[in-house]
Amino acid sequence: MTAPVKHDPLLKPDAATDHILGPASAEVTVIEYGDFECPSCGQAYAAIKIMLDHFGPQLRFVFRHCPQREIHPHAEVAAEAAEAAGAQRMFWPFHDLLFAHQQHLQDKQLLDYAGDIGLDLPRYRTEMQDHVYLQRVQEHLAGARHLGIRATPTFYVNGAVTDVSFGLQQLHQAIERALRAAG
Fold it and tell me: Is 170 left (phi over 0), alpha (psi -120 to 50) or beta?
């Protein structure tokens, strides 16, 4: 089920602050507010990879942080680590590792993942120790609150929130509807 389109500026991708896959010319933009420790986000991760392959250049995907700290104690530090990787142009490989290892998001494991993808480890350690990217994560979280997001994953398809509580097929169908409307 898709809700009406919101025209909130937060629902426009920003290449300066967002992590984006797919071309800016794509007919459909999907924004996910997600949590690296959330099992439902892990399921969505696999589905998104399939949808990106299926829809190709017609689809642009944006990932934003929405760590549910109360129930996922490692989600916020994992989001910070992903941002640290992003500062070294390695957000997406780190993102993929975090979802592949959702049950293992303690500091030592995050450092191991950083090494696995070839990050500059002294830089990574310093930035994590100083919480350089905590503000970015908190800005994403504040944006989620502004939009009324209470659970993860939450998806927007061309500005319309899409309910995936009954399965990720709803997201696929919302993308197809948006493509028909654009074409």
Answer: alpha
